[in-house]
Amino acid sequence: MKIHFKSILLKTFKVTGITIVSLLALMFLIPYLFPQTITQKIKQWANGSINSQLSFSGTRLSFFKRFPSLTLTLSDFSLQGSAPFQKDTLIAAKEISLAIDISSIFKSKININKIYLSQANINIEVDSSGKANYNVYRAKPKTVSAAADTSSASLGIEQILIEQSHLYYNDRSLPLLINARNFNYKGSGDLSKDLFDLHSHTEIGSIDFYYGNQPYVINKKVNADLVTSINTKSLAFSFQKNDLMINQLPVQFKGRFEFLKDGYDMDFKVSSNQSDLSDIFTAMPAAIAKWGDDTDINGTGNIQLSLTGKYIASKNVRPDLNFSMKVKDGYIASKHTPSPVKNLYINMTAQVPGLNPDNLKFNIDSLHFNIGKDYFNSVLRVKGIKSPEIYAKVNTEIDLDKWGSAFGIKPFKVKGRYALQLLTQGKYTTGLQKRGLRHVDTVITSIPKFSLHSTFKDGYFKYAKLPQAIDYISFDIDANCPDNNIKHAKLQINDINITALSNYIKGHFSLNNTSGIFINTAADIKFNLGDIKNIYPVDSLDLRGIINATVQTKGKYLPAHNVYPVTKADINLENGYIQTKYYPHPVKDIQVSASIINNTTSLKGLKVNIKPVSLNFEGKPFILKANLKNFDDLEYRISSQGTMDIGKIYKVFAIKGYNVKGLITTNFSLKGKQSDATAGRYDQLNNKGSMQVKNLVLTSDLFPKPFLIKTGIFSFNQDKMKFDSFTANYGRSVIVLNGDLSNAIDYAVKPNSTLQGVFNLSSSSIIADDFMAFADSAPSSGQKSSGKSSGVILVPTNLNLTFTADVKNVKYNGLDINDVKGQMIINNGQLSLKQAGF
User: Which neighbouring-strand residues pair with 587?
Assistant: First the structure.
């Protein structure tokens, strides 16, 4: 019996040993017996199934690369994308391994059941019309039966493994961008079936998530276990069980995603229930998350996010976005603060139907916290963005030093006692208001009614990176508007006191708009502009000079009724200097000394004395002096001397939306009285000198195009301003003028006064159509122009001008008129033509 058992045991060991040795031998021999066969079949399959360029530097077949699977490893693998991205790489990897079903190597078709990518760059692109670069797999025609399929390999993928890779997904049709670094993925399921469950585990060292070019997640770690049901026929994905960890925040994710013919259908729900508040901060954007590193944070938070609906760009159909966040029993304390934030409570919701900002419904039902005995309470509701309906209620009294310490604010230091009571409700709307003939301004047509009271006492503010602080700040603000009309708003700011080093701003300001504008202002200002860079961060701006100003004004401002406030103001700037990054040279030696006095409530008592304004720019000095009295009957004394390149000065400030250029050289003095000029008492006037302009651009509301004055010399003689060698370009026309204007002073200061003049006008060509204020727009593409232009040439009513014309050619409404000579008279808004040639 013992011998029989021993014999059986020996036979068993022998068979087992032979089997193991045979298997080991096969594992060593198969890669050498079939390498070319397997490689050729894989290449044959790739050529027949992949419709983009695929390349690799070498192959290796082994059981031990991904034991126990037989794997074909392709080195330096590269796969180009599908059209329209065929020139861009879809996948590039140091190695890609294909696990092969060992039983299939003895058959005519190799079955690939696993794919492994290592150190890969995966670049997925979708253009704005929805065309993607991943459509590289050439599906078999429906008419080909399984029996007729002669391909050398097939995909029966059961597992995908991606290690230490970089995934970049950019879908411009949404637009959505995901950038995942140190991407590790393991997914398993029978991908060969039409409907299967994909079980996957994902670890991402750092991920960025952008939607609509706005960052939502930046540089976050992700650890996720996902179960996804996939229907390959309908391209529908159902996310059944998905547990994510974003940094330290646990998140649950469920939903579905389906490709449509012209877009997507989605239903995503993301939630994090009863999470620790400190964990929520780790998932916040980097700037906030970093702040939480030095802060003690406690409490619970609940976050819900959903994105539901269809996205069809061609039909402007977009899904609905909903977000809610609740925080209870919040506690926030910097490690260095004696007074933490306690009782933090937030209840916030946001809804964006159709991802349309104008449909926004934003609601903070409550935001509350305490710092010691201080408190903050607020309610905020906003509906819409373009014309929002707003309800806000804020009530707070707080020590800003404790607030800054509790929240760990590092970029700046703020102190002081701040209080705010605000209640506002209503709609904010704007409209278009025509200014002149072609200019349209955006004006406020409705505001929420509101009442506001705010005080700031014993204030202090300092940027951490700058050497000096604003040492003292105080103000007391009262403002209200009883209805939605901004003209009924009242504003009063008392006890304004701002001190920094030896600089200060003190005073008060009030504006009452209920029965005409009533102004009551007093200000005392002393400031060394060179100190600004030590107090406030400025972007490549060098300011210098000493400003001293005192302003007092009180009374109604009703210009239509010739009612003005009583005013006394003195403004002085010594040794001013401005240097910006937009132009290499500064405006320097700026001197301003001006006083404005009005002891009456009309223009009769107004006196303006500018004594002087001077500056130096690029070695060219410019001086302007002016003494103006009694604007009802203007008595003036004005002089100017110097050269100013206003185009280059514009570059110093680089104000967007404006195009200013031209050179002005002045050397004139004007002295007289408005009534003497209008009455013809020219012996009482002393107007003399000249002004020269070059390449000056002027615009007028009367004409659709700007005038370019190439050269022009204006000389002053009593009430006349003479034009000498005045050459201007307007559109395609070139005009030369010689002559003079009279009654210029009266015309400048009286709105309805008439400007008179006599000129000689010559031109080689005038395109009259360019002067028309309401000319037809240019024809659209594919249409032929008729050569005619409809419109009118507008003439002001307060001009009395005579032009003796000599024009070689006039183009008007498709007509060519040659050798035009005669007189053109403009009088009271009427234009008449006399003498032959017209």
Answer: 578, 617
Going from the first residue of the chain to its last (838 residues), give the mean pLDDT of each consecutive group of 10, the final group possibly shorter: 60 53 46 55 67 81 63 85 88 85 59 83 86 74 49 62 91 85 86 77 88 77 84 73 79 82 83 79 64 76 89 86 91 78 92 89 93 92 93 95 82 93 95 74 90 96 94 96 90 95 94 82 94 89 94 89 90 93 89 93 88 90 92 88 86 64 89 83 86 83 77 84 85 87 74 81 83 51 43 70 85 78 78 60
Three-class SS state of 354: helix
CA 111 to chain centre: 53
- CA distance readout (Å), 326 to 350, 377, 391: 12, 15, 20
Peptide bond preceding 175 in cis form (omega within 30 of 0): yes
Task: Map residue 766 onto helix, strand or coil.
Answer: strand
What are the residue ranges of helices labelled H in 34-98?
35-49
The alpha carbon of residue 425 and the mean position of all alpha carbons in its chain are separated, in whole angstroms, by 28
> Strand pairing partners for 410?
none
- At 173, list the tokens: 């049709």
In this structure, are strands 799-812 and 766-767 parallel, antiparallel, or unpaired? Answer: parallel
Q: Strands, E, within 580-619: which ranges?
A: 587-598, 606-617
For residue 670, give the nearest of 636, 642, 699 by alpha carbon. 636
DSSP one-letter code for 70: E
Strand residues in 33-138 grouped as ranges (E):
54-55, 58-66, 69-80, 89-100, 110-126
pTM of structure: 0.73
Residue with tokens 């991943």, as numbered in its chain: 134
The phi, psi pair for 19, rounded to 5°, reads -60, -45
CA–CA gap between residue 295 and residue 281 (Å, rounded): 10
Question: Which residues lie below 8 Å from residue 623, measured CB to CB, with a gap of 6+?
Answer: 612, 613, 614, 639, 640, 641, 642
H or E element in which residue 773 lies: none
- Phi-psi region for residue 829, left (φ > 0), alpha (ψ -120 to 50) or beta? left
How far is it, in rounded angstroms, from Cα 791 to Cα 773? 6
pLDDT in tens, 732-759: 888 888 888 887 777 776 667 788 888 8
What is the C-alpha to C-alpha distance for residues 713 and 693, in angstroms, rounded to an integer?
Answer: 7
Residues in CB range of 322: below 8 A, 6 or more apart = 304, 305, 306, 307, 308, 349, 350, 351, 352
pLDDT of residue 719: 77
pLDDT for the residue 242? 74
Question: String of b and e for 750-775 (b: at least 16 CB within 10 Å)?
Answer: beebbbbbebebebeebebbbbbeee
- For the chain, count helices (H), then strands (E): 9, 42
pLDDT at 658: 54
Cα distances (Å, whole numbers) of residue 720 to 448, 512, 664: 53, 44, 20
Output phi, psi for 557, to 5 deg: -120, 100
Q: Name the residue with tokens 């209080």.
A: 419
DSSP 368-419: EEEETTEEEEEEEEEE-SSS-EEEEEEEEEEEHHHHHHHTT--SEEEEEEEE
CB 812 within 8 A of CB 768: yes
Backbone φ, ψ for residue 291 (5° rounding): -60, -35
